[in-house]
Amino acid sequence: MEALRIKLEMPQAHFRKPWAFSIRHTYLAPPFSTVIGLLCNIIGNGEELFEEDFGLAIFSKFSSMDCEYTWLRNLRVKAHKSKYLSKVNRELSKNNIEHPGGQSPVRIFVLNNLEIKLYLFSENNALYNRIRQGLKEPEKWYSHLHLGRSEDWINLKSVEKVKLKREKYAGKTGFLTWVPSPTEHYHKTEFPDYQKTFQKLSGRSLIVPEKYEMVEIENTVLRNFNWKKVKILESQLYPITLTSDCFEYFLDHEIDNGKEIITPVIFTRIKGEDK
Q1: Where are the domains of the chain?
Q2: Which end of the chain is more exposed for a tag (fewer CB within 10 A), N or C?
Q3: By CB neighbour count within 10 A (0-12 exposed, 13-18 middle, 19+ buried), where does 55 fall?
Q4: How would you label 197-222 residue by residue, b for 16+ Cβ within 10 Å and e otherwise?
Q5: Cα 114 from chain centroid (whole Å)
Q6: Helices (H) and strands (E) in the chain — how many of each?
Q7: How far apart are CA 13 and CA 29, in angstroms?
Q8: 249: nearest Cα among 203, 184, 205, 185
Q9: What is the rounded distance in angstroms from the CA atom of residue 27 to the CA atom of residue 269?
Q10: Fold classification of 2-83+102-270 (topology level)
């Protein structure tokens, strides 16, 4: 089968967990929603990406994690008045004019020196060409190419079609990855024993944000996310049994600096828009 592989690097990144506020924890790999945002940016038209279901696999590794201390500004009128006592005042003392709003100290966990591999599978091969063409048309992007925060620019290394072979595999990879639950597996009908594979692979169970829609609650517009049930495979260990087919994967064989690198790819289904 053919898939599109996108390889990129980032000096730093922060993939905020939605429930983290004063201490902003990060996912160890970009969530589906973040990668989907990048793809929509490249294409310049999100509707084209969601014309039908597609599969997405995300791999990430980093060298270290830092904790940054910073201030975040709150521009709500209530926050401004709590500091300046009036919504039209910005003077704390004579001739001491400060920025509007309030501010709060925040700790942000940041990943350093990331390498990321993204695999996209679609029954519509034209989508692959559309993404590759979109990378040559920056004038159609919504913004510069980044993952997560706008200041976390990406360095694109390669975008190419690759052939994935269905084979058994045992061993480790150097990457963290999201492993979809059986109900979220794009090719679940082709891997009827995947339930056993999922149970055997060692990792923490999580829910990770995917697509969202804008909803209004009490006059406030919010993002309402869909969530994917996954495991994060941090050990990078893929077990195998010689008596069962449940440990088969689609494998990507690539040569990097004269060394063969094998990546087991498991696609998570991202649903298209309802017709």
Answers
A1: 2-83+102-270
A2: C
A3: buried
A4: bbeebebeeeebbbbeeeeeeeeeee
A5: 13
A6: 5, 17
A7: 10
A8: 185
A9: 20
A10: Alpha-Beta Plaits (3.30.70)
Beta bridge partners of 69: 107
Judged by DSSP in three states, 84 sits in helix
Structure tokens at 125: 């091969």
What is the tens place of the pLDDT at every residue in 118-172?
Answer: 999 999 889 999 999 999 999 999 999 999 999 999 999 999 999 999 998 888 8
Amino acid symbol at 141? W
Q: Rg of the chain over CA atoms, in angstroms? A: 22
For helices 32-43 and 126-134, give the axis angle rounded to 10 degrees. 80
Contact 128, 160 (CB under 8 A): no
Structure tokens at 120: 């996209």
Contacts of 32 by beta carbon, 8 Å cutoff, 6+ apart = 56, 58, 178, 208, 209, 210, 228, 268, 270
Query: Residue for token digits 């969202």?
Result: 212
- What is the dihedral sign for C-alpha 227, 17, 30, 150? positive
**Contact (CB, 8 A) for 209 and 33:** yes
Residue 115's CB is within 10 A of a number of other CB atoms, namely 16
88-120 pLDDT tens trace: 888 777 777 877 877 788 999 999 999 999 999
* DSSP state at residue 22: S
The mean pLDDT value for 34-44 works out to 95
Q: How far apart are CA 212 and CA 32, in angstroms?
A: 11
Q: Count Cβ atoms within 10 A of the Cβ of residue 236 and give its class: 0-12 exposed, 13-18 middle, 19 or more buried.
A: middle
Contact present, 34 and 147 (Cβ < 8 Å): yes
